[in-house]
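Incident log, support desk, overnight shift.

02:14 A customer reports that sequence design results differ from what the structure should imply. Their input is reproduced verbatim below. On-call engineer (initials T.W.) acknowledged and began investigating.
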C-alpha cells in the first residue's frame, strides 16, 4: 500500500490518494481478496468475473490507476471493453426509467401503496438487489424491474445479488417484466409472484436457467 501511495504521488494524484486507496481496499473486501496489494493478476481477474456490480463515475478512474500500477494489462483491456459496452448507459437508463413508471402504475392498480424507488440505493458498494419497495395489506414487498424493447423477447437476466435476494425473500420478492418499452404502442407489464414453487403471472411462469458457473480449483 505504501508503494501505491508513493506511486500515486509521483503521478500527480497526491491530493486525493487516500480516496484511491480506500476504493481498492473496499473492493478487495467485496471480492474476498485479503491481500489486495499482493494478489496475482489471474486471481484478481477471477474474482472480478463473479462481481455483479459495474464500475461508473469516479470508480473507473480509481480502478484504472490500480490496474496501471499493478501492470495488469489483460484486465485493463477486459475492464475497458466492459466499460465501452456501457457507453449506451443513457439508453439503458431511459429504458429503466420508463419501465419503473409503468410498473409503479401497475402496482398502484393492484392495490400496493408506499411505493419507493430504491434502485440506486447501495449497501456498501453492492446494490440492494431490487428496484422498488411497496406495501400491500401491511406486508412489505421487494420488486425487481426488467425492461425489454422487444415485445416477443422471452428472457431476462438476474445478477447473482438479485437471485440471492429472490431466494431469501421468496413470496415477498416480485419480478416485474415490461416488454415493448420503446414502442409508442401499448407496453406489456407482467408482475410475477412466487407461489412457493415457481414464479407465476396468470397463466405464465418463469423458468430459471443457470447462465454461467464460476469454477474454483482447490
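02:41 Re-run completed on a clean worker. Output:
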Amino acid at each position: 500500500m505504501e508503494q501505491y501511495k508513493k506511486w500515486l504521488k509521483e503521478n500527480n494524484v497526491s491530493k486525493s490518494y487516500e480516496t484511491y486507496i480506500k476504493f481498492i481496499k473496499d473492493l478487495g473486501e467485496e471480492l474476498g481478496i485479503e491481500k489486495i496489494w499482493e494478489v496475482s493478476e489471474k486471481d484478481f481477474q477471477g474474482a472480478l468475473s463473479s462481481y455483479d456490480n459495474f464500475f461508473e463515475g469516479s470508480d473507473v478512474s480509481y480502478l484504472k490507476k490500480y490496474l496501471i500500477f499493478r501492470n495488469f494489462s489483460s484486465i485493463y483491456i477486459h475492464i475497458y471493453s466492459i466499460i465501452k459496452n456501457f457507453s449506451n448507459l443513457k439508453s439503458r437508463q431511459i429504458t429503466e426509467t420508463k419501465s419503473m413508471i409503468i410498473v409503479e402504475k401497475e402496482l398502484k392498480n393492484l392495490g400496493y401503496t408506499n411505493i419507493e424507488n430504491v434502485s440506486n440505493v447501495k449497501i456498501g458498494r453492492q446494490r440492494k438487489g431490487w428496484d422498488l419497495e411497496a406495501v400491500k395489506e401491511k406486508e412489505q414487498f421487494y420488486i425487481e424491474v426488467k425492461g425489454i424493447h422487444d415485445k416477443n423477447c422471452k428472457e431476462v437476466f438476474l445478477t447473482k445479488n438479485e437471485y440471492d435476494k429472490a431466494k431469501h425473500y421468496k413470496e415477498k420478492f416480485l419480478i416485474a417484466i415490461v416488454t415493448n418499452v420503446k414502442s409508442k404502442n401499448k407496453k406489456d407489464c407482467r408482475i410475477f409472484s412466487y407461489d412457493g414453487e415457481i414464479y407465476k403471472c396468470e397463466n405464465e411462469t418463469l423458468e430459471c436457467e443457470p447462465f454461467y458457473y464460476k469454477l474454483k480449483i482447490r
